[in-house]
Structure formats: structure tokens, C-alpha cells
Design goal:
Largest sheet of chain B: 7 strands, mixed
Strand content of chain A: over 45%
Number of strands of chain A: 12
Structural class of chain A: mainly beta
Helix content of chain B: under 10%
Shape of chain B: globular
Low-confidence stretches of chain A: none
Largest interface: A-B, 27 and 29 residues
Distance between the termini of chain A: 41 Å
Radius of gyration of chain B: 13 Å
Strand content of chain B: over 45%
Radius of gyration of chain A: 14 Å
Mean pLDDT of chain B: 93
Order of helices and strands of chain B: EEEEEEEEEEE
Oligomer: heterodimer
């Protein structure tokens, strides 16, 4: 069975500082990997996804993520955080032909200090 | 263009009651999935509907059932409510069911509280 671990429950960074959110997955084959963001009272918005090819994936809002098969990781990064980035971030894994059945991690809550 | 819409936004029920949540997919989408998000946790997949049939199901008991209508909208029904069913229920839509690379659009959810 597939699983996702987000080791950091809470992270606080200063505005303008760089950000890295960790994600480790467990899956037997090549995974489909996603990062979603959820603001309070909102649904989930897709930031980026990886299926194959270049292991460095660019997303919206200046985010990027790097797939490292040897480490079973898919960490999310942003070079300079804005106050509006404060939200909950979820990493998820899917499988080929599994439709919309994604397995999500527990999430990381990002707080941004002025 | 309206995105995924869910109703109601909030709901309070008593243990043992039954509840129905509704979802209208984004225009042009034909596949609807439901997720349960307990407080402080990530969403958990309940099931997915395509062509009015349940195509995939997560690890949820039979108390959770659903339906998809010809206009692609969907309902989630939960019978014999338990306190543990209190959660945010998210609906997500996409075009086609089998390709995981289809972008999922999520609604804002229905917050269900069971007392």
C-alpha cells in the first residue's frame, strides 16, 4: 500500500526567507506525486505534480519540487516566502490507472513571520 | 465558469442520523471523487464516480454510499452517523477517470459536525 509522510507538522519562516517542506513516500512502482495547498476554509489547490521526466518540477506561485527516487522524497521549495504563502501544504501520491484515488500526507502548516 | 460547488457548507447532525452532501463538478468535468478530512489530518479518499457508477473505493464502511446523476453531479450519503464522522468532506472533479495526470479541482467542502 502506498503512504506519504510529512515529518514537519508546523514550520515558521520569516517573510523573504527560503522554504523547504519535506515529503517522503512509499510506493512500489513509479509514483505520481503532487503538492496541494489549502488555505483556511478553502479546498485544495494543486501547486505542482510529477509523473515522469525531469525530476525538478516547476509549479504555480513560484514553488518547485524535486523528485529523488533514491530517497523516496519529493520536497517542496520556494526561494523567497511571501506572507500570503501561510497555509497548510499537503503532499500526495497516486498511481497509474488509479483515477483520482490519491493518498495524502498529514500536512505541514506554514506560518510566515513579518 | 463556476468551479466545484458543494452544499451545504456546514451541517450539524446527531449520532445515528443520516446525512446527504451534494456536489456539482466543474463545467466540462464528468468524474467526481469524495474525500474525508478529519481535523488536523490529510484528506482520505472515500470513492469515485464516473458514468454514474462507483469506480474506485477507499477503506470506508458501507455506511458511506454515493450516487452520480446524469448531469455529473453527485451525492454522498452517510448512514448511522458516528461521532468520528465529524470532518470536512471534500468533493473533487476531473475529466475522465483513469488517468491520474488529470488535474483535480476541489470544492471548499462541507463541514459536518456529529453531536
Amino acid at each position: 500500500a502506498q503512504s506519504v509522510t510529512q515529518p514537519d507538522i508546523h514550520i515558521t519562516v520569516s517573510e523573504g526567507a527560503s522554504l523547504e517542506l519535506r515529503c517522503n513516500y512509499s510506493y512500489g512502482a513509479t509514483p505520481y506525486l503532487f503538492w496541494y495547498v489549502q488555505s483556511p476554509g478553502q479546498g485544495l489547490q494543486l501547486l505542482l505534480k510529477y509523473f515522469s521526466g525531469d525530476t525538478l518540477v516547476q509549479g504555480i506561485k513560484g514553488f518547485e519540487a524535486e523528485f529523488k527516487r533514491s530517497q523516496s522524497s519529493f520536497n517542496l521549495r520556494k526561494p523567497s516566502v511571501h506572507w500570503s504563502d501561510a497555509a497548510e501544504y499537503f503532499c500526495a501520491v497516486g498511481a497509474n490507472n488509479a483515477g483520482n484515488m490519491l493518498t495524502f500526507g498529514g500536512g505541514t502548516r506554514l506560518m510566515v513571520k513579518p | 465558469d463556476a468551479g466545484v460547488t458543494q452544499s451545504p457548507t456546514h451541517l450539524i447532525k446527531t449520532r445515528g442520523q443520516q446525512v446527504t452532501l451534494r456536489c456539482s463538478p466543474k463545467s466540462g468535468h464528468d468524474t467526481v471523487s469524495w474525500y474525508q478530512q478529519a481535523l488536523g489530518q490529510g484528506p482520505q479518499f472515500i470513492f469515485q464516480y464516473y458514468e454514474e457508477e462507483e469506480r474506485q473505493r477507499g477503506n470506508f464502511p458501507d455506511r458511506f454510499s454515493g450516487h452520480q446523476f446524469p448531469n455529473y453531479s453527485s451525492e454522498l450519503n452517510v448512514n448511522a452517523l458516528l461521532l468520528g464522522d465529524s470532518a470536512l468532506y471534500l468533493c473533487a472533479s476531473s475529466f475522465r477517470t483513469g488517468t491520474t495526470n488529470e488535474k483535480l479541482f476541489f470544492g471548499s467542502g462541507t463541514q459536518l459536525s456529529v453531536l
